[in-house]
Amino acid sequence: MSKTKKIVVIVSMVLVLAVAAVLNVYLLDSTNQTGNDENSVATFFETSRADRQATRAYEIQQLNDILAMEGEEYAEARANALQQKMSLVEAIELELKLETMLKAQGFADTIVTVSTTSDNINVIVDSDNLTREDTARIYSVIIQEASISPDYVNIVAI
Questions:
Q1: Which of 23, 58, 72, 150 gives the lowest tally of CB atoms within 10 Å of its CB?
Q2: 56: burial class by Cβ within 10 Å (0-12, 13-18, 19+)?
Q3: What is the pTM of this model?
Q4: Cα 68 from Cα 150, distance rounded (Å)
């Protein structure tokens, strides 16, 4: 590629990057001005669920690809992938069960993430003012359903 073509390509890329940055700032400002806190919280929960679902689907697809490998040299990789997939499915089931139980306790919306590599559980609750009683109810549900110590539970109210 000639020097002139390289310069044209670089200048074009810089212009595209600048346009993208301007559009990003413009769109973020217009969203912030038109949206209120209630919509922001609802969008947060929707986005978080969609991100979690997409990530989990990707992880499961990667594990399925490993499980589909043929040959004795991949036996250990398949065994590890199967174990990881089972851990992931258990975490997904626990997340759904905890979210359902917390909604049944009267919380408007919740996101629960369960780590597949440790005992950590994160709970994000849609609540403007989370009281001690609310926190105790959350801990109670998680300890009862997940059988873990409260030390591994992190609760965040938004």
A1: 72
A2: middle
A3: 0.72
A4: 39
Question: Does a structural domain hold residue 125?
Answer: yes
In total, the chain counts a number of residues equal to 158
Q: Give domain status of residue 86, yes or no.
A: yes
What are the C-alpha distances in Å from 1 to residues 8, 16, 57, 62, 152? 11, 21, 41, 38, 57
Domain total of the chain: 1
CATH number for 150: 1.10.287.4300
Residue 21 placed within a domain: no
- What band does 40 get if pLDDT is binned at 50, 70 and 90? confident
Per-residue pLDDT tens digits for 44-97: 899 999 999 999 999 999 999 999 999 898 899 999 999 999 999 999 999 999
Is residue 60 within 8 A of residue 88, CB to CB? The reply is yes
Nearest Cα residue to 157 out of 91, 97, 118, 102: 102
Position 128 scores a pLDDT of 84
